[in-house]
Amino acid sequence: MATVLETHGLTKSFGGVLAVDDVSVAIAPGEIVGIVGANGAGKTTFVNLVTGYLKPDRGRIIYLGRDITAHPPREVTGLGVARSFQIPQIYASLTVLENVLIALAAREGQSLRAWAPLSTRVREAEGLILLEPFGLTEHAARPVSELPQGGLKLLDIALASALMPRLLLLDEPTSGVSSAEKFGVMDTLVSILQARGVTVIFVEHDMDVVTNYAGRVLAFSEGKILADGAPGVVLADPAVRKAVLGWA
Ligand SMILES: Nc1ncnc2c1ncn2[C@@H]1O[C@H](COP(=O)(O)OP(=O)(O)OP(=O)(O)O)[C@@H](O)[C@H]1O
Ligand SMILES: [Mg+2]
Predict the structure, then answer these.
(1) Element (DSSP H or E) covering residue 67
(2) Domain range for 170
(3) What's the 44 CA to ligand 1 centre distance in angstroms?
(4) CA of 40 to the centre of ligand 1 (A)
(5) Which of 101, 139, 163, 233 has its CA 20 to 30 Å from the CA of residue 93?
């Protein structure tokens, strides 16, 4: 089977804490994978390892057949692996469009201190096109600080998608988003990413969101994958319910 991502024995500890413990998993192209787990289960550490923000103690990471273990984030991103953060990495005082222009400039490898202007007509046009499917075009001129939390999360994902990734890792795409907005945010991002054939791994605490949008669920517990399979099966597993939700 051709895979987009494989980890083999991926391990990372912090002092005495085994945050990710011997994790081996294979993800096929186009899969939408939800990662669930209690606080401290190792979900963010796993994302940080795959995207190069942390170096594993042991194990290998294979992306599209290529060993990317311990590659720096810039290189991993350059190969088509993008991510969002648990807390969006956005310039709050700038406008929506300015944030996109920065992301596009970064994609082109232009340093922010370079002499070339950030805003060019071509780049602005591209930025507006990029915002369109996320429903953010009408907010392009607004400062990010005025966006509702759902808009902020969508902008974060729009910025990550500016990199035209093959694999996108989202760390809690709906955290802080009101339950009224949550499903709209997920509908938007999943339909866009699926249409583009992007493989998605998203960390999520809301089990309704996982059930509705993940085709496959990885349940993390104490750094290990406790269960891996269809949402209906994994989330009904008593061991998962105890470890993830704290009740059987
Ligand atoms: N940079 C770090 N330094 C020390 N310990 C860390 C660091 N990052 C994570 N840990 C520890 O590793 C374990 C896993 O943390 P991680 O952030 O991966 O959990 P998580 O599943 O993302 O939790 P949450 O749902 O709260 O976001 C925790 O015990 C955490 O305290
Ligand atoms: Mg986390």
Answers:
(1) strand 66-67
(2) 5-245
(3) 7
(4) 5
(5) 163
